[in-house]
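Researcher: Structure for this, please.
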Amino acid sequence: MDGRGNTKDAPAIEADDAVDQRLGETVRLLRQRAGLSIQDVANKTGLSTGMISQLERARAMPSIRTLRLLSIALDVPISYFFESSDPADVQRYIVRKTNRRLLRLTASGVVKEALTPEGKGQLELYELTLNPGASSGTDFLQHTGEKAGYILSGSLRLWLDNQAHLLEAGDSFRFPSVVPHMFDNPTQQVARAIWVTTLLEDRGTQPQEQV
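Model: Predicted structure, token format:
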């Protein structure tokens, strides 16, 4: 059974397991490449050592907020956690629709598609798909920079400094990322949105969060 009481078939379960395993291996390799211990990463993110260990061993699925904290601590764009593209199709400045890199957060009910090419840049552009009940995490996030977006279909509830804003198709937004923020889909319909975030500069620690 999945989180909404529906029975999953074997291929879907295997696909979810593969996603968890790939994410865990990516976190571990990035941490080791940076020469950091699990305790070092815990100190930088505010996440517990047990949580980070579970993520690396594919025993837990991270939220978008958790991955954002890890991207800050490991000094990489959040797109490093996405599925790899076919190297033969990678272009320096162009991303074809058929070659988007995906980040499937099965526990959160969110799919992120990278619309910007691989590598670091001044901003990151994504298309988000949120299943009913999907969310960015269990707590608010703050960092330097700006975020903006446009709702393509369905409804997205954007929380800014404890105030909820229900956005419908055609609505858009922009806010400083230092404003405490999170988002979810409180409806029974799938929501899709374009999401833009600027390059993070603040490498400070962030409040503790649950996976």
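Researcher: Any notable elements?
Model: The two ends are 20 Å apart (CA to CA). Confidence is low (pLDDT under 50) at residues 1-14, 202-211.
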